[in-house]
Specification:
The chain has 278 residues and is of the alpha/beta class. Helices cover 28% and strands 28% of the residues. It contains seven helices and 16 strands. The strands form four sheets. A six-stranded mixed sheet has the order 5-4-3-2-1-16, with helices on one face. Helix 1 runs parallel beside helix 3. The longest helix has 19 residues. The radius of gyration is 18 Å and the shape is globular. The mean pLDDT is 96.
Length: 278
């Protein structure tokens, strides 16, 4: 694994229906490829953002019946790129779905599939309730993919808040962390940049985070601000708005070993116990 490459984030605004969402994603993927990207990442929920549960389950399909996956495989082959679909809603039961990401090689092969591990379940003081686990079944396996240039750790959105996942991926050789997301505006304004930079710094890894952005047809607003961050925590590229867009940055994998040599926290970690304090 060697050489630099150009990475792109597709920032989009998924619809309540699948076809317009996929059409939008493909148009932006093609734009990224025309701009010279070798690796293109789309956001969490690339295929749909539909909060009404009956309509959601009516729209989505099982993996073997989903029509968007073959389309994305064909795009990867035609464009000659590594295409990372941040996640799709995939039906796995009558009222159950997986929030599943796909890494597709330039020959159209799905080389990695990852089901989001951490579910966003919360009751807010203002009375709002989010229950991701009411529709989605969480995964329980961390996933990596070997790109030609470096090993990719595959995660999704809310995983960002669980640093042990990224440390485990880094310890297993991941030097690039993919964090495709669909962040709310309040949490994005408060935490998006600092958490993305923290995951990069503490693991000496690049972070690539394509995001949903703007006012969606369902009424929900997402934060946007797709990011590419280097292992020292420097922002290499950012969408400084919430509109659909493509951002690109040159990724030099030698920066991973260089940064980990300067701050060898992966090598210096130690096991410890916790004192039983009254």
């Amino acid at each position: 694994m060697s050489g630099s490459f150009t990475a792109a984030c597709v920032q989009m605004r998924a619809d309540v229906q699948i076809k317009p969402s996929v059409d939008q994603a493909i148009a932006l993927i093609r734009e990224a490829a025309r701009s010279g990207a070798h690796y293109v990442q789309t956001p969490e929920m690339t295929n749909i953002l539909q909060p009404e549960r009956p309509k959601f389950f009516e729209a989505i399909r099982s993996e073997d019946q989903d029509t968007s996956i073959p389309l994305f495989q064909a795009e990867a082959m035609q464009l000659g790129i590594w295409l990372h679909i941040g996640s799709l809603a995939i039906k796995i039961g009558e009222r159950q779905a997986a929030n599943r990401g796909y890494v597709i090689s330039p020959d159209g092969e799905v080389v990695a599939a990852y089901d989001k591990i951490h579910m966003f379940d919360v009751d807010l003081p203002n009375g709002q309730t989010y229950r991701e686990s009411a529709a989605y079944v969480p995964g329980d396996v961390a996933v990596m993919a070997d790109l030609p240039w470096a090993r990719l750790g595959v995660t999704i959105c809310y995983d960002l808040r669980f640093p042990n996942l990224y440390r485990t991926l880094a310890e297993q050789g991941a030097g690039i962390m993919a964090i495709p997301s669909s962040f709310t505006v309040p949490t994005g304004e408060a935490h998006w940049h600092v958490l993305m930079r923290a995951r990069a710094i503490e693991n000496g890894a690049f972070v690539i985070a394509a995001a949903q952005g703007g006012q969606h047809a369902c009424g929900r607003s997402t934060y946007g601000h797709s990011l590419i961050v280097d292992p020292w925590g420097k922002i290499l590229a950012e969408a400084d708005h919430d509109e659909p867009a493509v951002i690109l940055a040159e990724i030099d994998p030698t920066r991973i070993a260089d940064t980990r040599g300067r701050i060898p926290s992966l090598a210096n970690g130690r096991m410890f116990s916790v004192a039983d304090v009254p």
